[in-house]
Amino acid sequence: MSTAHYDVIVIGAGPAGYVAAIRCAQLGLKTACVDNWRNHNGDARLGGTFINAGCISSMALLESAKIYQLLRGDIKSHGIKFDNLTLDVGKMVERKNQTTAKLSRQIKDIFDHLEIECIHAHGKLLSAKQVEINPLNEQPRYVVEADNIILATGSKPIGLPCAAQHHDLIIDSSQALNLRSVPKKLGIIGAGIIGLELAGIWNKLGAKVVVLEAQESFLTAADQQIAQEAYLICNQQGLDIRLGARVVSTLVKDGRVKLEYQDHEGTHSLQLDKLIVASGRQPNSDNLTAAEVDLLLDENGFVHVDENCSTSLPGVYAIGDLTLLGPMLAHKGLEEGVFVAEQIAEQHNSINYAIIPNVIYTDPEIAWVGQTEQALKAIGENYRVGIFPFKASARAQSLDKPEGMVKIITQADTDIILGVHIIGVRASDLIAEAVLAMEFSASAEDLARTIHAHPTMSETLHEAALALADRALHLPPGY
Hints:
Elements: E1 5-11, H1 15-26, E2 31-35, H2 48-52, H3 55-72, H4 89-113, E3 117-125, E4 130-135, E5 142-151, E6 155-157, E7 170-172, E8 185-189, H5 193-204, E9 208-213, H6 224-236, E10 240-243, E11 246-253, E12 256-263, E13 266-272, E14 274-277, E15 281-283, E16 316-318, H7 330-344, E17 358-360, E18 365-370, H8 373-379, E19 383-389, H9 394-398, E20 404-411, E21 417-424, H10 427-439, H11 444-448, H12 459-467
Parallel strand pairs: 1-2, 1-5, 2-3, 5-16, 7-14, 8-9, 8-14, 9-10
Antiparallel strand pairs: 3-4, 4-5, 6-15, 11-12, 12-13, 17-18, 18-21, 19-20, 20-21
Helix pairs in contact: 1-7, 3-4, 3-5
């Protein structure tokens, strides 16, 4: 039996991998995609962590949680009354699973249409041209060959020695998306993007949530003013966020978790019904290559790449969460998938890593792109700031979502936009206009002179741009 040969083999079918495979096939390259993802039921699914146990899952549960919170609290102001509200978390999780399964099937449909061979297996690099296939259905292993290989195996949760997983009591962020009941008291280690998103979901569903963050400051990657606003809103919503809290031990006893942590005041203990470890993610580079393959990794398991996503092996590329080239974000990996596919097809392009949007899917959402004010201060940049609060927005008021603001930072002399920071409803959608503006080196005046529909949330960007020149149109006195 002859060895199958492809133009490109992609290992991994998360956003970076499946997009790389799709773009390769669109460019006429014979492509195979090898993926070993299984869901909590053991079924093979395309889409990786992002679709099956990450952002999409989290967003689906958050929407259910937001509806429940609205019905439980503020719905009467809309003139709607009812009795006997009940909560079925299992049904919420089932809806989430149906959503992720549908998206996974859509990827498979695209693969089939483009004649991409989908191989449900663990793929191991044997050389720069060979991949060992170990099928998930326990069929015999075999080897396939390719002129080019793209590594896109993604990342996995980082475990903590002080909080080792314990059945369903101490769990990671992926397992936290499949809980079938609301814990009375829930602990979360980590106040980063993942920790905050999970905290928001379970807080809305009625859990008492305590978030422990080892760092002394909150959301250090975000603009400090936005981070402070987010911290205030989180506290108003009932989240108990403890900064400078370093977990030192956990003990499971009598169906509960006893946790000890230290801060500047000393040692404290908590009794929890469940504990979620959301302390970040690490690359899925274990067992990626045979021992004799000289693929260069760093001490944390990230694959070394150059500006073209090329590894130390000729014809082998690495993209997405496997590398430190840009942030560990799905849309960054997606663009790298397109970039590498076009590199292979000799259609050269580039990625602007300085203008990649960041989004936190909390309620309200947080999004930003470009430089923060504290970073500009640190380098002595001469800048200006324009702010428009959502409570001055007619659309935000009609949505009963007045929390938040848009903040635009420009270079003082040229008016070129250096950064845009948003906290508030639909921030994840609003940030796209800011990214486009910055990609084309727009000035704040360009935004200010662009007609925005009224009343819309996009107007908040327009008003913030106007505010830079003290021309905001809908900003009441004293705001």
